[in-house]
Amino acid sequence: LAKTTQPISMDSYEGQEVNITCSHNNIATNDYITWYQQFPSQGPRFIIQGYKTKVTNEVASLFIPADRKSSTLSLPRVSLSDTAVYYCLVGGNTGGFKTIFGAGTRLFVKA
Amino acid sequence: EPEVTQTPSHQVTQMGQEVILRCVPISNHLYFYWYRQILGQKVEFLVSFYNNEISEKSEIFDDQFSVERPDGSNFTLKIRSTKLEDSAMYFCASSGASPPERNEQFFGPGTRLTVL
Question: Is B40 left (phi over 0), alpha (psi -120 to 50) or beta?
Answer without folding.
Answer: left
